[in-house]
Amino acid sequence: MKSSITRMHTAYAALILTALTGCASVSYGDKNVEANLKTLAPVVGKASLYVCREPAVWVGAGARSTVIVDDKPIGTLKPNNFAHVLLEPGEHGVKVKNSPGGESGILNVTAKAGEVQIIWLGITGGGFGTLTVDFFSNRIEAEQCVKKAEYAVPSAQ
To answer: Which among 110, 111, 116 has a CA at the least distance from the CA of 42?
Structure first.
């Protein structure tokens, strides 16, 4: 009887661990590139777009989110990660595909040459809502998110 309970606990633990870790893996970019990106320097003639995922404790902490800009993945993020892409000026669509989970709606951004935009990726509703992309409430929070996070790049699927 005791061994069947132990096996059941082990099975539940494995199931929970699988659910928390998700299926997508996170790949990290070069540390020198990361250090340069953290200066948040504008690029002449291009728009610089960062997507930063804030820390998470319980809800969504294990989910991996692939950030997609104009239908191209720019990085798979877990909490405390950011992705970056240079864009031509104009309209662009940003969304996330969660693993486990589905896709968010599209956040439309207008990119201007020489501009640095930072998009928020996190959980709405004080940690009990949905994982989504949106604009940060202020520039200081946005910059701090990037400066405290690790640079992630697209994962090999």
So the answer is: 116
The per-residue pLDDT for range 96-133, each reduced to its tens digit, is 998 767 788 899 999 999 999 999 998 777 666 677 88
> CA separation (Å) from 115 to 46, 53, 60?
8, 20, 30
Please provide residue 73's backbone torsions phi and psi, each rounded to the nearest 5 degrees.
-70, 135
Q: Which of 71, 74, 67 is nearest to 120 (CA)?
A: 67
CATH class of the structural domain 23-153: mainly beta
CA dihedral (41, 80, 64, 16) in degrees, to 10, reads: 180
- CA–CA dist 74, 127 (Å, integer): 24
pTM of the model: 0.80
Domain boundaries, the chain: 23-153
pLDDT band (50, 70, 90) for residue 61: low
| CA R_g for the chain | 17
- Find out whether 108 and 93 touch, Cβ atoms under 8 Å: yes
